[in-house]
Amino acid sequence: MSNPPVKALRFYWDPISPYAALAFQRLPEALAGHSVVVDYVPILFGALLKANGQKGPAEIPGKREWTYRQVLWLGREHGLALPAQHPFNPLALLRLAWACTPEGLPPSRWVTELILEHVWRADGADANAPERLAALTERLAPRRQASDEQAKQRLRDATDAALQAGVFGVPTIEWQGKRFWGQDALPMLRAALDGDPWFASGAWEAAGERPAGLVRGS
Fold first, then answer.
1. Strand spans (E) along 62-214
2. Fewer beta carbons within 10 angstroms: which end of the chain, N or C?
3. Rounded to whole angstroms, what are the CA distances from 9 to 44, 153, 204?
4. What integer pLDDT is reported at residue 188 of this predicted model?
């Protein structure tokens, strides 16, 4: 009996997103029983927001408070906790992720896990505290300095490629040209991997072609 084909997925993330941390924790369950390879691709969420003229959830009063409440509730079983400041500047962590990675490859799951845990499992700690960043850097043992131009450029390239692919938020998981946004899309991703006939019915494509009834500001 031949082995099942390996399914190649791409997981776009930014450590600023609690939903990326939640999705990362729950991804193995969603992929259970499938032969998969996952590329973990760090990108700058703020650049996606800027490109689309949007604000992040934590920048909108009311939505900010709801986001934190929901994240704490959802993250109970995984031990997720809020950092001291949020939102914060994630550039140092994103560049560190790319500094750990050989040319031509994305960061490993281990690198991704340590960086997300650095932010979302250290209750009340500052994600950018110099002593914490130094300790994380020592543990990761990057191949180059996170401040090197190569690490910065790889982050820019990954973010630009994500935008060109149609990624507008994190986490986004891409498989066979389909993009599943948010940790709450994991059941939908699982259905697609399982061969749910809905995905072959044309409904996915039809939903993307529906006309807008109202365009604000026009």
1. 172-175, 178-181
2. N
3. 19, 23, 18
4. 98
